[in-house]
Amino acid sequence: MIEPEFDRHRQPEKPKRPNKPRSFVPPNPEVSRPEVGTNIDSQSKKNTAIKNANEHLNDRGKQKIRQAKITEPAVAPIMNPVRVMCLALGISLFSLGLIGFVVRDLAQAHLSYWHNMIHVATGFGAVIVGYLGYQVSRYFSLVFGTVYGLLGVVGFMVGQRVIPGTGNLTEDSRLWVLRPEVLEFGTADHIIHICIAALFLFGAYLGSKSLRRNSRRA
Q: Nearest to residue 181, comparing CAs of 193, 170, 169, 194?
């Protein structure tokens, strides 16, 4: 029997040591407690911030809905006073313009061709905006109420005693001649213009008041 050669360079194998069980080291409560508390505090702060952000978004959403209800012109009811006033005055002015083409001295006014055309155009516009909505009716009433009011007041201030060239041909003490026989506003015209202005402005006021009252109820 041949014995294997002995390798002199080969290191002898070391005997394996048995594995020792690792000892359990309990966590130090004094060290881990602040970490847990810090995590809880940061999580609670985060939850509070998220809650506040949600409440802020909800408040802003409610505020936008409330503002939309106040300023929404498309859903304003047809019986809103400013719209009713625009429709009524529009029909009246349109009719006055048409009648003025036939009766030039209606109500002792001085109704020339262009004077009647202004009444017809204003009446037609008032009817259109009355059907369009609340907001445009309010703007129209404010603008044309101011314009007609200025025409009446300025006419009383600058009018002179002159014999008119159109409409009622009797002498007028407050005749404002913008252009002879084309645009002449007398005392009756000034009174009519001031009445139209008062109705337009009063309708705008009632319309705003009615819409605010309805928004509070909603």
A: 169
